[in-house]
Amino acid sequence: MRALLHLLDRLTRLLDGLNEWVGRTIAWLTLAMVLVTFAVVVLRYGFNLGWIAMQESITYMHALVFMLGASYTLKHEGHVRVDILYRGMSARGRAWVDLLGALLLLLPTCAYILVSSWDYVARAWSLHESSPEPGGLPGVYLLKTAIPVMAVLLGLQGVAQALHALKVLLGPGLDAPHPRERGL
């Protein structure tokens, strides 16, 4: 049992680490988005200049922050949920909710997004889809790739969430405290 818990712990740390890295890296796009937005406003209203590609880049960055940051947000329990019952539950009760939520809701949703977006993204890649606007960004197909990547990252974090819950259920006292109990 100890070996299984150790394996679960290592796998959980790996998945958590991946999404932590992605989240912290992608967060820098928010700074870039603010700077580009500022530049667009200054150029437009100060110099009467504007470029479609700059404006589209803001949309691209915004989409990437939300799509690729979703797994980081899940890791840090930042998604909206009804806490009325959850926060009053024992650690084992929360573990059951987290495990069942991941297995019955999150992972099937991620699988659906991955499967249903595959042809859409493949078609964009086959066409090397670009912006329909003159002077727009050429890599729409790259942006659309964020859809299945989001599904995979969110699914992996769902697996990590399920593994955290399993550690609580299989080995009481062996798992780290729940993030809410750590004051996070």
Write structural notes for this entry.
The longest helix is centred in the middle third of the chain and has 37 residues, at 91-127. It is built from seven helices and no strands. Helix 5 (91-127) runs antiparallel to helix 7 (146-170). Helices cover 76% and strands 0% of the residues. It has helices at residues 2-26, 28-47, 52-75, 83-86, 91-127, 140-144, 146-170. The chain is mostly helical and 184 residues long. The protein has one domain. 23% of the residues are buried.
Percentage of residues in strands = under 5%
Rg (C-alpha, Å): 20 Å
- What's the SSE pattern? HHHHHHH
Number of domains: 1
What separation lies between the terminal Cα atoms?
Answer: 29 Å
Major beta-sheet overview: none
List the helices and strands and how they pair.
Elements: H1 2-26, H2 28-47, H3 52-75, H4 83-86, H5 91-127, H6 140-144, H7 146-170
Helix pairs in contact: 1-3, 1-7, 2-3, 3-7, 5-7
Question: What's the gist of this structure?
Answer:
This protein is mainly alpha-helical and 184 residues long. Helices cover 76% and strands 0% of the residues.
